[in-house]
Structures are given as structure tokens and as C-alpha cells.
User: What shape does this take?
Amino acid sequence: MGRRYNIYIVSGKLIIAFLILLSVISCKTTKKLPVKKYTNSTRKGYIENYSDLAILEMKRTGIPASITLAQAVLESGDGNSTLAREANNHFGIKCHNDWKGKTIRHDDDKRNECFRKYNSVEESFRDHSDFLTGKRRYAFLFELKPNDYKAWAKGLKKAGYATNPHYAHLLIQIIEEYNLTEYDKGKKPKPKNVEPEPEPEAVEISVDETESVFAEEKSVLNVEDFSVKLGSGRVGQINKLDFIVIQKGDSFESLNKQFGVMKWEVLQFNDLNKKAVLKPGWIIFLQPKHNQGAPEVKYHLVKNGETMWVISQKHGIKLSKLYQLNEMEKGQEPAPGDKIWLRHKH
Assistant: This one.
């Protein structure tokens, strides 16, 4: 009996050793990209973290790594968006009729829209490539030169990837600001000895108290706590809307030349009247404001000097809709401490 036990013990040790050997071989033969998960990542950190995936997809499908990275940066908010955090969806791809995988509901152009949900970020990057290569409307992109990032950016907008009228401009801005064309060469650029990326500076928004901003009314726009964070580029986002902060020397003509928006559009998008004069420090939206605020912000507590127009600009809501949401008459102003609803109460 003792010999039999010894045989069992020896056999058991051999099996364990064999399993360990298999695991070692498996680790050596399976290549896994060193992708970390970032929380509240900076843009540089995001690019550094996921550039390997973009390069890998470029080699597999021919989509320029610079385009993939710029789209991921923009669509995921540097990896910090709700879709990126909760669904690993870094490209804002909706379900569509051919999607058979997991889904998540999220407010976008409409309420409670269906978006794709992935098991990993790698799966999101791969599906983005498959999405572009598998749709006929994107076929012409692959006839473009792979290093012509401007043509790719404009082509994506033309094909209807996003409804944002400034989508191509935003992609090009990201690519040029972060020199993403270096990744199109198929490998990561050598790191440089640079200072860590600073936190974006807060831009204080001040509005002239005597400026007439809508209809023929005068409104006090003395703002005490009205600031936003901008990166080094001019275009920021509020409520998924593109905006800029007016600088000295800006005019309706210069905005048209730089961003492609007509004077009447600037006036209409920002609830301004025909006599409005652009003032340095103003937030100016480059596209129509929404009917409601962002899903995560239900209401706004009014501070001293804030008007309905200021609140509508601060949250990217049409002024008329803001009045309707709060059952107020046009021209009526809130008092400090009032709760102004930014979304439907129910």
C-alpha cells in the first residue's frame, strides 16, 4: 500500500509540473498589449496608453493610427466619458441593426439611445476598424493616401460618422496639436524630456453689464462663478457642444474664416440679437444648443447676478427651452438661490 501512495504522489507532482510548463509556454506564445486602465486620464496619458492599439489596427486594416487616436480622444473624452468608463466604448458607435453584442443605453442626439458595449478597450478599437472597413459608405476612404490625415478627417465627416459640423476640424486640431502623424510610421516616437502636462487653465467668463443680448432687452450679466476648463486648443465642449471663448481681435468674419460659421449662425446659436458685439471672455457656441442639459446635471442653483441667458450659455441649453423647462415667462429672471431645472423633471 505504501508503494501505491508513493506512485500517486509522484504522479501528482508530474501533473502539477506539466501544468506549470503549459502555463509558461502559453504566456510566451500569447502576445498581450500592455494596456492599462486610466481614471481621469490626461490627453497625453490616453494617447500614450492606447497608441499601440491604434498602430496594431493600422497594420491590420490600413486606417491611419493618427485618425484612430484622434477619433478615440474626441469620442471618449480622453477615456473619461460615461460610455468609455461603463461600456469600454471609445468611439461612440451606436448599436445599428447588425450589432449582436452587449448594449448600453445613453442619452445622445436623442434620449436613451442604444450604444455598443464591449468587454475590453481592445475590442472597442477592433470593432471601430471593422465598422469602417465593413460599411460601404466608408469605402472611398481607403482610396486616400494613408498619410493624408486631413482628407481622412474630412471624409469621415462627409460619410456621416458624426453629426457635429466641426468634426473634421476637431480631428485635425488634435492630430496636429499632439503630432499624431508620428504614429502613422508604425511605431511609437521616442519619448522626449518634457514637463508633465499641466492642468488646463480655468478661463474666467466676464460679460459686459450693458450689453443687449437678446430681443431688445437689457440684462445684467455680472457673473461671479462662470468658468470652464480649456486645453491648449481653442475649441472646448459643454453639453457635447463645441464652443470657443472670444479673444481680443475676434470678429464674426474671423470666426467664419476659422470655424466656418456664418454671423447669423453665431447669433442664432447663442440667443444673441443682431446688434450684439462679440466681447472677449464670452462663451460662443459653434453649433445649436440642446433642448436640455447634460444627463448628469439635473438643475442649476442660481448665484448672485446670474440670468437665464447666462445659465443657458453655461449649460448649453436654448434660452427658450430653459424658460419652458421652468415654466417661466420670457424675460423673467431668477433670484439667487433659485433652482433652475436643466432637464425634464420626470
User: Anything to note?
Assistant: The mean pLDDT is 78. Residues 202-341 form one domain. The beta strands are 102-106, 113-117, 202-204, 227-229, 236-238, 241-245, 283-285, 299-301, 339-341. The radius of gyration is 26 Å.
